[in-house]
Design brief:
With 218 residues, the protein is of the alpha+beta class. The chain has helices spanning 3-7, 20-27, 119-126, 134-138, 141-148, 152-155, 209-214, and strands spanning 9-10, 31-36, 39-52, 83-88, 92-98, 106-117, 167-171, 180-182, 196-198. Strands 1, 2, 3, 4, 5, 6, 7, 8 and 9 form a nine-stranded antiparallel β-sheet that branches.
């Protein structure tokens, strides 16, 4: 692992026991680190979306926890700081981080990373050519999980705050400053809620070009 990431410590669970919109903002700049048999892959979080639990008023109709706990979403109601990974379109995965106190649902969807370590392996996982733009590797929730080799069967439920976990959230002191705040994208409910947070001007932020240009005017 590179020097800054080597010095980075796992985020403490109490950092993630807050409201999802607070956690989403504070996650910007943190590192998502995946230790694999062939090496370490790491990316800096530059875009995230908050999803509120059914206890919020009003509850979030776009959240997987909206109708209460199920076998599929039970991670969201468990301790904070665990990975909630689910499949989309039958072939891609999205990764969320549980937050709020134990027994109360809430999560943050990771939408984009800046590759920090293991770019050749990320390119291989994505089927990309050498030197591919970073946005094409990790600029989107499905892209970043594929780049880091994450899946529901292998990573759902992992404790991201444990130094023994192969998948961790780490803090190397990077300051993302004040994030841009916009409505969430790619959903059909509560589309106007300002719960998407991104590092301003970062090339890895996902979404259509015209949308990224309008972020600063929201």
């Amino acid at each position: 692992m590179d020097a800054p990431a080597c010095r980075a410590a796992c985020c403490h669970a109490r950092f993630l026991r807050m409201r999802p919109d607070t956690v989403a903002q504070r996650l910007l700049g943190k590192l998502l680190v995946h230790r694999t048999r062939s090496g370490v892959l790491a990316g800096r979080i530059v875009e995230a979306e908050a999803y509120l639990g059914p206890h919020h008023v009003p509850p979030d109709p776009a959240a997987h926890s909206y109708r209460g706990p199920t076998p599929r979403n039970r991670v969201l109601f468990g301790p904070a700081g665990h990975a909630y990974v689910y499949a989309i379109y039958g072939r891609s995965f999205c990764m969320n981080i549980s937050c709020e106190p134990d027994g109360v649902a809430g999560c943050v969807l990771l939408r984009a990373l800046e590759p920090v370590l293991g770019c050749p392996a990320m390119e291989h996982n994505r089927g990309a050519v050498g030197g591919a733009p970073h946005k094409s590797l990790t600029g989107g929730p499905g892209r970043l999980t594929q780049a880091l080799g994450l899946s529901r069967t292998g990573h759902n439920g992992l404790d991201l705050t444990s130094s023994a976990s192969p998948l961790q959230i780490r803090d190397d002191g990077f300051d993302a400053l004040r994030p841009l705040v916009t409505p969430r994208i790619g959903i059909r409910h509560a589309v106007d809620w300002p719960l998407r947070f991104a590092v301003e001007g970062h090339p890895c932020v996902s979404g259509p070009r015209k949308f990224s240009q309008a972020l600063s005017s929201f």
